[in-house]
Amino acid sequence: MTTIRRDLVSATVNRVCFSTDFNIHTDTHKRYKFRKQTILADKLLTNDEKAEAIKYLDETYDRNKVLNNSGTKRICENCNKECLATLYCEYCVRNYLQENFKNWSSGNDDIDDLIQKCQMESLGPANIVEWIPYSNLDNVKYLTKGGFSDIYTANWINGYYREWDSKKQQLKRLGIHKVVLKKLENVESANKNWFEEAKSHLTISNKRASIARCFGLTQDILSGNYMIVMMKMDMDLRKYLQVNYNRLTWKEKFRIAYEIINALYFVHKEEAIHRDLHSGNILYSQFNDTCVAILMWEISSGYSPFINYECYDCDLVMIIIDGIRPEIVPGTPLEYKNLMEECWDADPSNRPDIKELDKRMEKIYLEYQSIPNELYQSKVKNNFEIKNKTNYTSSSLHKSKLYQFENLPEPKNATEVELEAFHSKSYDFINIPDDIDDYANSNNQKIDEISKISSIFKDDYDVYNNPNLHPEEQNELKIPDGLFLNIF
């Protein structure tokens, strides 16, 4: 067997998926057929590489069929049930997992019940959450302090389930695999917020491929802390934009924006709400969708917003209150610009809800699929420059903090004249009142509730989006920080 060039296979699959015209291939079955035919016709891949690429398409197709309960069914030769998957039988996989319940336990009945429930709803071999004994994790190292918890890296000795062996009727593991561990806080707390956080991670990522994989839970044998075991991603969106921005066309930017928004839409459909959305940690939240607008702007420009300001300084608070927003990149297509501006409107009633946002971004994405790249190739680097640009890769920009600012004026939308005046000068011209310290209790004080300034946006966009714009009426499960959206 010849060596498989996995980077080429991955790049080819991504290219084929990206080139799929959703206006022509209108459902998952038509898209699968088109992509498979395109792979088979590819002249760069060897036959073995084509088989590898098609296997990936088959896995995704099987997963989507089971998730949506749609497609042609077949009779499983083992259990004789009508199943949708072709590489495996979803019923056989679940039966195998159920038979194994007696062989493991976390020591906590609630956790056992949660994991067992997730396993009985598994869509395929590569999407199974499980209890992972801490002894199966090697080389555990502290990585960083996240917005609300400590993050570690580790090697999972056996790795996750990868495929179903139809002959042996058992699941096969990948082998040693690098993972991220996210410590759950306050496990002794009576309110069990830690358990709700774990439940959010497991149930959402169990269903949606656009959410970065959550493999399951483990428990530090020394501290007793429970930890979420997650897939280690290569880079976040901010880093991806830094590395690839000069090669991105508008069509590719629209794809990124659409896939993020679409993933958030599905999260909302699951009646769960994200708590922390920013380009270093793609997450979503309740109360307003200005955070999405800022992500859209960052995707269009390749920069972080207001990078001349320190995080959460009072100058930044006041210019946002006064309606100042990042400068629109020259050449930004009108539909994208309008949607972005609606999302960061100072009046929440003028902002689209997540359902409308998803629908309109999908329309923009699909309409530009048939337009040649060269007509909309980004010229941003040639005619757009952030004044006094600083290095925005600092880790401080990737951490969420909550601050309370009191007695702030009502937010407003800036006029075109005000916006032009701001963007035509250096960012240090804003006049801040002498008594600005009265607005802030402390620049280092964390609070439990999002303050009024959060309804605008903050550098890390730690804000909350509610399609009904009435956060006090929301009872859905909140997804805390750390649930990543997988858009690539």
TrEMBL record:
<keyword id="KW-0808">Transferase</keyword>
<dbReference type="InterPro" id="IPR001245">
    <property type="entry name" value="Ser-Thr/Tyr_kinase_cat_dom"/>
</dbReference>
<dbReference type="GO" id="GO:0005524">
    <property type="term" value="F:ATP binding"/>
</dbReference>
<dbReference type="InterPro" id="IPR011009">
    <property type="entry name" value="Kinase-like_dom_sf"/>
</dbReference>
<protein>
    <submittedName>
        <fullName>Kinase-like domain-containing protein</fullName>
    </submittedName>
</protein>
<feature type="domain" description="Protein kinase">
    <location>
        <begin position="137"/>
        <end position="430"/>
    </location>
</feature>
<keyword id="KW-0418">Kinase</keyword>
<dbReference type="InterPro" id="IPR051681">
    <property type="entry name" value="Ser/Thr_Kinases-Pseudokinases"/>
</dbReference>
<dbReference type="GO" id="GO:0004674">
    <property type="term" value="F:protein serine/threonine kinase activity"/>
</dbReference>
<dbReference type="Pfam" id="PF07714">
    <property type="entry name" value="PK_Tyr_Ser-Thr"/>
</dbReference>
<dbReference type="InterPro" id="IPR000719">
    <property type="entry name" value="Prot_kinase_dom"/>
</dbReference>
